[in-house]
Amino acid sequence: MKLTTKGRYAVMAMADLANNANGKAISLTEISSRQNISLAYLEQIFIKLKNKKLVKSTRGANGGYILERSASEIKLSYIISAVDEEVKMLNCKKHSKKGCNNKSTKCITHNLWDELDQHIHGFFEKVKLQDLVKHNPNL
Q1: Global pTM value
Q2: In this structure, is residue 80 part of a structural domain?
Q3: CATH code, domain carrying 62
């Protein structure tokens, strides 16, 4: 399974934001410090999150980011897809005429990995940002 640091850091940063906002904007510097994520990397991630309307920014002395929707409405799958991440177990394309590894048939374990892929996607669809904060109040 492959989930890059971009996807992991996006989820971490959004959980930090949800846990620490309390109605006020949080700066990326604060998130960077608490989560030990490069500020430059967070800036790239938050541009994507903002474009997908998961966060909004405010300017000024007390500027920063706030969630665009409540944490109970934001699925982990939204966050991961917002930063152009794809979690998958298979190298082949599901609906491709070519099978696994560019062969004409699927590999012998194709259906196993495909089923695992579905479980993973289902998990990210079920878990919401609020669930992370609720289970880890000291983020």
Answers
A1: 0.83
A2: yes
A3: 1.10.10.10
Please classify residue 120 by burial: count the beta carbons closer than 10 Å to its beta carbon, then call 0-12 exposed, 13-18 middle and 19+ buried.
middle
Burial 16-31 (b: 16+ CB within 10 A, else e): bbbbeeeeebbebeeb
- Note whether residue 97 is domain-resident: no
Averages of pLDDT over each 10 residues, the chain, 139 residues: 82 94 90 96 96 93 91 94 75 61 74 85 93 72
The label of the residue with tokens 């374990």 reads: 109
Considering only CA atoms, which of 76, 63, 5 is closest in space to residue 36?
A: 5
The set of residues, in sequence order, having a beta carbon less than 8 Å from that of 99 and lying 6+ positions away, is 92, 105, 106, 107, 110
Gap between the Cα atoms of 135 and 139, Å rounded:
10
d(CA 18, CA 71): 6
The DSSP line for 8-76 is HHHHHHHHHHHHH-TTS-B-HHHHHHHHT--HHHHHHHHHHHHHTTSEEEE-STT-EEEESS-GGG-BH
